[in-house]
Amino acid sequence: MIEGCPVVDQVGILTDLRDLTERTGGDQAEKPTLEYLDGVGYLDIGDASDISFPSSSSSCQYFWVGHCPHWIQNNRSAEEPHRTGTLTDVTGFAISVDFGDETKYYNNHEPQEVIEAVGIGGTVRVCEDFSIVRSLDGRCYSIADAERPWRECDFTPLMATSFDDLAERLRTHGGYSIPGERVLEWLEMEGNPS
User: Fold this and answer.
1) Residue 87: phi, psi to the nearest 5?
2) What is the CATH number assigned to the segment(s) 71-145?
3) Three-class DSSP category at 121
4) Count H helices, E strands: the chain?
5) Backbone phi and psi for residue 111, each to the nearest 5 degrees, phi listed first
6) pTM of the model
């Protein structure tokens, strides 16, 4: 469960999710149960140019590890320690990285993109704390431990942005990215009931 998951807007202000859930009904508010599988669920109210904003229903909509890297995950991992290794193989969704003293196996939902960016034998940087593998030119791909159960991609686009819809999307998809202006409108409506 994620309780008090931070909400980050387009200027990086943190708000506690408990504050938002309480706006839906005061003391009587039913707070959503937020769960995640083998990764971190990120709640995002960034702007429309976010790199994680799925562009169409043909794009994977999951933000679980191994699927769409979230811009918060990408940005926060940039300053964290990385291990440098060599991409040695791709089989199905699994990519293998040789670190010299060990070889690790990770899953990614679009391993062909990793191959195109890095190439077999190419150098990658891995930040396991944020489940990110980076090419040397900075492209980020989300990775999941290959030992964990794998989830097939979900292509169902986000169709509604009410608070309940977004809480459900966080629970079922590990996050989302919508224009910050939309969330600010929603907060204004919630704060000024007619």
Assistant:
1) -70, 115
2) 2.40.50
3) coil
4) 5, 11
5) -60, -25
6) 0.65
Return the CA Rg of the chain. 18
Per-residue pLDDT of the chain (194 residues; tens, 9 = 90+): 233 333 333 223 223 333 333 333 444 333 333 333 333 333 343 333 333 344 445 689 999 999 998 888 888 999 899 999 999 999 999 999 999 999 999 999 999 999 999 999 999 999 999 999 999 998 999 999 999 999 999 998 888 877 788 889 989 998 887 777 776 776 777 665 44
Instruction: Identify the residue whose tokens are 């944020």.
Output: 130
Closest CA to 52 of 39, 67, 35: 67
Indicate the pairing of strand 42-45 with strand 6-9: parallel
Residues 63, 42: contact at Cβ < 8 Å?
yes
Residues of the chain with CATH 2.40.50: 71-145
| Secondary structure class of 1 (helix, strand, coil) | coil
Among the listed residues 14, 45, 11, the one whose alpha carbon sits nearest the alpha carbon of residue 182: 45
DSSP code of residue 52: T
Rounded Cα distance between 155 and 63, Å, is 12
| CA within 13 Å, CB half, 185 | 7
Q: Which amino acid is at 8?
A: V
